[in-house]
Amino acid sequence: MAREHGRIRHRTWSDDDFRALKGEEQRVFMLALTQPGLSYCGVVPFTLRRWSQLAADSSVPKLRRSINALQKARYVVVDEDTEEMLVRSFLRHDGILDSPNMARATVKDFENVGSKLLRTIIVVEVFRLLNEEVRIGHEKTWDDVLVPFLTDMIPRTFPQGFPEGFDRRFTETLYAASGETFALACARASRAAPSPSPAPKSLSTSRAAAAPPLCPIHQLPDPCRGCAADRKATKDPT
Question: Are 43 and 32 in contact (CB under 8 A)?
């Protein structure tokens, strides 16, 4: 399912953080949002040389300076090794969560993300959206698509359990690790987080329901699919 547009909301211009950016930085952010290669999970090919041809006064060094500023402000995350860039808040603002079908397209596009760092950040962002006090998106988007996605991806993303302090400090440090290797990024983020690790909220779409017992390793409801996958891998290492 090809994307035909990128959504830019009017309230963007009343956002203090966005208005604190320089004009060129704002333009580069809009450029990323309107690229034809932007996926449903907010990842776009990182093609500086091609982007530098889109304006008469643009250049690769100028673009890189703007992107570095956007990374520092947590608007984007870049993986230089896989040449991919993530628009971090894309799922929150593009309206994708209002449609279960678009959420399915997001999960499909997620499978094509080459960067382990960006995949981890997408999982973290979906998890944060699930646990917000006022959850955005259609109920069926969560029940039918994104909760099963998290149930599958969290054990695969964090096979040893959640890093210490799976909270804002962990995620902020992870975002700041653009350009580093995935292992170094996770290690740096874990060191920045508090200890002991607070247990994440249950992967339940009902806030009124009592939270089920959680697996102490993967923090998923029992019976834990993560443990089942570990047992299968132990029996069949191939």
Answer: no
Question: Secondary structure of 158-191 in the HEC alphabet?
Answer: CCCCCCCCCCHHHHHHHHCCCCCCHHHHHHHHHH
Q: Are 183 and 125 in contact (CB under 8 A)?
A: no
Indicate the pTM of the whole model. Answer: 0.70
CA nearest neighbour of 128 among 163, 168, 73: 168
Two structure tokens written together for 128: 């944060």
Q: Please state the φ and ψ torsions of residue 205, each to the nearest 5 degrees.
A: -85, -5
**What are the angstrom distances between the C-alpha of 200 and each of 204, 215, 222?**
11, 11, 14
* Residue 134, both tokens: 């006022």
Nearest to 70 by CA among 10, 123, 17: 17
- Give the angle 75-78-80 at the CA atoms, nearest 5°: 165
pLDDT in tens, 101-156: 999 999 999 999 999 999 999 998 888 888 777 788 889 999 999 988 988 888 88
- Token pair 């993303």 is found at 157
- Helix 168-175 and helix 116-130, axial crossing angle in degrees, nearest 10: 150
Asked if residues 37 and 45 have their Cβ atoms less than 8 Å apart, the reply is yes
Non-local (6+) Cβ contacts of 42 within 8 A are: 86, 87, 88, 89, 90, 91, 94, 122
For 26, phi then psi, to 5°, come to -60, -40
Q: What is the pLDDT of residue 198?
A: 39
- Name the DSSP class of 87: E
Residues of the chain with pLDDT under 50: 165-167, 170, 177-202, 205-213, 219, 238
